[in-house]
Amino acid sequence: MKVKVQKIDGKASGDIELNDAVFGVEPRADILHRVVTWQLENRRGTARPTRERSDVARTGKKWGRQKGGGTARHGDRAAPVFIGGGKAHGARKRDFDVSLNKKIRALGLKMALSAKAKDGLVVVDSLELTDAKTKALAATFGKNGWNGKVLVIDGDAVEDGFRKAAGNLPGVNVLPAMGANVYDILKHDTLVLTKAAVEKLEARFNG
């Protein structure tokens, strides 16, 4: 698949041949759903449990008389009615560490990239800016027609000036190629890849 390459200011910069094995896969909703669900579940932290009466260190010996004490009958000090006792009906531990086959994860990323290659993919030669300021970058995005939510993916590391300027723009996120994931790709309207990011993504699946 051949697509046009442009400079960050919108000027043409030649063409690039995209690997059909990465950017030409037919998307499947069931695969994308499984991968997105796996990603979001693994972003959740473990739900902290409370200590119930079997978890607290309290004596189980009956501490008062059965009758004649003028108070209610009590036995185990771990009962929820006592200070230091266990929590009644407390929160249980919930761990969201979901597993997913590596082949399915890789296939989902290929499908997400392919979906954007059909609609919403822009390839630029680099992210080098002459003026790494938020106002100038916003004007550049507007000139290029990159509206709504924009995800920019660079090679090994994102240039620091661009990353800081883009961080002030609403709806714009910047990631290195190794941080590319299905959820972030699909939730953005426009995907901007540098030539270095294209090479990294293709090498990621070929290596």
Task: Explain how this protein is built.
The chain is α/β, with parallel strands linked by helices and 207 residues long. The chain has 2 domains: 2-45 and 101-206, Ribosomal protein L4/L1 (Ribosomal Protein L4, Chain: A); 47-67 and 74-95, no CATH class. 35% of the residues lie in helices and 14% in strands. It has helices at 20-23, 29-43, 102-118, 134-144, 160-166, 182-187, 195-206, and strands at 2-6, 12-17, 121-124, 150-154, 172-176, 190-194. It has a 6-stranded mixed sheet. It is elongated and about 95 Å long. The mean pLDDT is 89. GO terms for molecular function: rRNA binding; structural constituent of ribosome. InterPro entries: Ribosomal_uL4, Ribosomal_uL4-like, Ribosomal_uL4_dom_sf. Belongs to the universal ribosomal protein uL4 family.
- Give unreliable regions as ranges: none
What is the mean predicted local confidence, pLDDT? 89
- Estimated helix fraction: 25-40%
Please give the CATH architecture of the largest domain: 3-Layer(aba) Sandwich
The CATH class assignment of the largest domain is Alpha Beta
Termini Cα gap: 20 Å
Keywords: Ribonucleoprotein, Ribosomal protein, RNA-binding, rRNA-binding
Family: Belongs to the universal ribosomal protein uL4 family.
GO molecular function: rRNA binding; structural constituent of ribosome
Region (Disordered): 45-78
